[in-house]
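hey so u asked for the seq, here:
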Amino acid sequence: MTGGFPLPEPMRRALALADEAAADGEVPVGAVITDPAGTIVAEARNAMRGGSDPTAHAEMLAIRRAGEALATSRLDGCTLWVSLEPCAMCAGAIALARIDKLVFAAEDPKGGGVVHGAKVFTQSTCHHRPEVMGGLGEAEAARQLRDFFAARR
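ran it, C-alpha cells below
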C-alpha cells in the first residue's frame, strides 16, 4: 500500500520480481513494462551474477523483452515500472527505447542516474525524456534492499 491506496499491479509485480532476484543472490531489482493499454508485455529481474553479465539489469532485460514481444525498437506509449531508480546505463536505454513513462519505487542516491548522479534525462544530449514518477512502493523496495545488504555484511 502507498498513501492508503493499493499499489498498481505492475509495481506489485516488479517488487515480487525483486524478491525473486534477492532469493537468487542478485541485488533485488525487478522491472515490468506495460503497453499503452496497461497490459504487462515484459518483465525481468536483475541477473548480472547468474548470467555473468554486468549489463543484465532488470530494466535492460525488460526493455529487450518488450522490444521482442512488440516487434519494435521503439516502446512508444509504454511505461516502465521498476523497484529502484535506474542507473545511468538503464536511463540511457530508456531514452533510446522511447519509453513514455518511468515509475520507480526507491531512489538510489549512490547509483541512480535519474534523480541522482548523471541525471540522464536532464542532459542536453538526451533526445527523449520520459515522464518520471518516483516513490511508488518506496517503503517495500527500501526494505528489500536493506534486508538484502544486511544479510551480506
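Residues 9-23 form the longest helix (15 residues). The longest strand covers residues 40-45.
lmk if thats what u needed
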